[in-house]
Design goal:
heterodimer, A: 319 residues, alpha/beta, Rossmann fold, Alpha-Beta Plaits, 2 domains, 6-stranded mixed β-sheet, 4-stranded antiparallel β-sheet, 31% helix, elongated, B: 267 residues, mainly alpha, two-stranded antiparallel sheet, 2 strands, 70% helix, 1% strand
């Protein structure tokens, strides 16, 4: 088990197929802050990918770079084999914002008409309104629409140009459970037609339920990249805790089953995929005592992978 | 849907970039329609200069006095048409601060619309309201029969005022990108009143104390105000007026472009 798994095996690797997103060695600095710290990411067309991570992990900065809203400080970015801005001017990328992005003094249909007019070709206004279920409020001012109606309008705008890549930044923030479920049902239906979907979220369940592939970010780096089940396997397991005087990480590097090892004074915390083997080893091969085995919930596992716990020493068992 | 799994380069060839950076008459039409919904701006830009003209342009003590190739009433009318056009174009330009606050300008950056095309739409919208303002003041002049000058001068001065107000569309855009939305309009009303006094739109600059006169010559409405009165006064163009207008145009347009390029902030 390595901390850095290969990306999802299911995606097509044909050389004729263009990568929807291709980031190579991307860095982004804001003064002294290193928001994106060397990201390599390839997304094939047709994938549904979640970028998961806590606030400040670099999700938004990465998405802004893919959308061409900001330039990487270093590294290369291409979308459908071209610069993000070129892809946007051809209507190949769309994004749904979390909030804002709408003019309150335009009506719903005027907003669609305005945005649609900016593309070389776009879907008919009436059709888009009907598709998004907002035809009945076409003449309502955007400022008078509910949050859910505004979100449907944003979604309608994003589909106007029939994009190849749809980027969603925390798309369901502020939605209730029902709204969230409906939203994702629409996205899934849409993705079945071959659209690539990239969404950022800090909801674990959302990434788990709706993405083919999850990319975990922490401190501007990819800490894990794989299918939902791969990530789960990686994050599952138990924590073995024991008291061991004079322990060091180096000496515990080869503990069987160990995924990560953490030493806090005389306390040793081993996250293990085979807790029996780990416990047996600690009790027979070392002077460990007060041994305790606890199951780690998936939530804890994600926190461990993405948490803001830089001080804690961690070593990948086989990397 | 044209998209299928496994997009190839061929599939993308059918996707075109819109002509003229995404500039369309549809967008311009909708921008003008938005403007008509913003009643306060329309009232300020059209009603205020007309009321000022009725108050200050018809006074029999001086209105019929000779002024260049016309009379003082015509001179006041031109000044107030300029005031109205400047209010109109500045307010329209500054509406980008509201668009920024609502995240609309960021949304537009995810469309093919180029910054140049967007600015063109904004400036043309501003000029539409500016034209309404000039026409409103000139119609007030025609109806009251006070301003006197040749038909050619009505057209020449009106056109100069309208085209000159372009400078303040750039000013509005610059401040719209620079200032937060909450108080930009009130602040602009105040700034424009001060600039109008300094530029000699309400009181001739020659009536100010010497020090004030010298300062006033550097302000952005001074050169423009002198230039739009030139056809009426007929005493030639002073090159410092032209320099004044061009220098401020460079500052405002350059500032607007500079701020716009920095503007990708989220809301």
């Amino acid at each position: 088990m390595t901390e850095m798994t290969a990306s999802a095996g299911a995606r097509p690797a044909s050389s004729k197929t263009l990568l929807a997103v291709d980031l190579t060695g991307v860095h982004k600095y804001f003064g002294h802050v290193h928001a994106v710290d060397g990201i390599d990411l390839e997304i094939a067309s047709g994938e549904i990918v979640a970028i998961l991570g806590p606030n400040g992990a670099g999700k938004t900065s990465t998405i802004d770079i893919i959308l061409g809203l900001s330039q990487p400080s270093a590294g290369h970015v291409s979308v459908m084999g071209m610069q993000p801005r070129q892809a946007i001017s051809r209507g190949l990328i769309s994004a749904v914002m979390q909030t804002g992005g709408l003019l309150k003094d335009l009506t719903v249909s005027e907003t669609v008409e305005y945005t649609g007019s900016l593309f070389a070709s776009s879907q008919p206004v009436d059709e888009v309104l009907r598709g998004a279920g907002i035809a009945d409020i076409a003449d309502r001012r955007v400022g008078k629409c509910s949050g859910g109606e505004q979100q449907r309008l944003r979604f309608a705008l994003a589909l106007l140009s029939d994009p190849v890549l749809l980027v969603l930044d925390e798309p369901t923030t502020g939605m209730d459970v029902e709204g969230r479920r409906n939203f994702w049902a629409t996205i899934r239906k849409d993705a079945e037609q071959g659209r690539t979907v990239l969404f950022a979220t800090h909801y674990l369940e959302e990434a788990d339920a709706y993405a083919d592939r999850i990319v975990l970010l922490r401190h501007g780096r990819i800490v894990a990249d794989g299918t939902s089940s791969e990530i789960k396997a990686m994050a599952a397991g138990r924590t073995v805790r024991a008291t061991l005087a004079g322990a060091s990480e180096d000496m515990l590097r080869d503990v069987p089953g160990a995924d990560t090892v953490e030493v806090r004074g005389d306390t040793v915390l081993v996250h293990s995929t085979d807790s029996d083997a780990t416990a047996r080893y600690l009790l027979t091969e070392t002077s460990a005592k007060d041994l305790e085995i606890t199951a780690r919930g998936i939530e804890d596992a994600f926190l461990a992978l993405t948490g803001d716990d830089t001080a804690a020493a961690r070593t990948g068992a086989s990397s | 849907m044209s998209t299928t799994p496994g997009i190839t380069a061929q599939d993308l060839r059918s996707r075109r970039v819109p002509p003229m950076g995404g500039f369309t008459l549809t967008a311009l039409k909708l921008e003008v329609r938005r403007l008509t919904r913003n009643r306060r701006t329309v009232i300020i830009a059209i009603v205020v200069p007309v009321v000022f003209f009725l108050l200050f342009g018809l006074n029999n003590q001086y209105a019929n006095l000779r002024y260049g190739h016309g009379n003082v009433s015509a001179e006041v009318m031109i000044s107030l048409a300029l005031y109205g056009a400047v209010l109109a174009t500045t307010f329209c330009g500054a509406m980008v601060s509201i668009e920024r606050a609502q995240g609309w300008s960021r949304q537009l950056r995810l469309t093919p619309l180029s910054p140049v095309a967007y600015i063109s739409i904004k400036i043309l919208t501003a000029l539409v309201l500016g034209l309404c303002s000039v026409i409103a003041v000139y119609v007030a002049g025609i109806v009251t029969h006070k301003p006197s000058m040749s038909v050619g001068l009505w057209i020449a001065t009106g056109a100069s005022v309208w085209i000159g107000s372009l400078l303040f569309a750039a000013f509005g855009l610059f401040l719209g990108y620079l200032l937060p939305a909450e108080n930009v309009m009130q602040l602009l009303g105040l700034i424009l009143a001060l600039l109008s006094f300094a530029g000699g739109l309400f009181i001739p600059v020659s009536q100010y104390p010497h020090v004030i006169q010298e300062i006033a010559k550097w302000t952005p409405l001074y050169g423009l105000n002198e230039l739009v009165h030139t056809p009426l006064l007929g005493n030639g163009v002073d090159w410092t007026w032209v320099v004044n207008v061009l220098a401020w145009l460079v500052i405002f347009a350059g500032g607007a472009v500079w701020r716009m390029q920095k503007d990708t902030a989220r809301v």
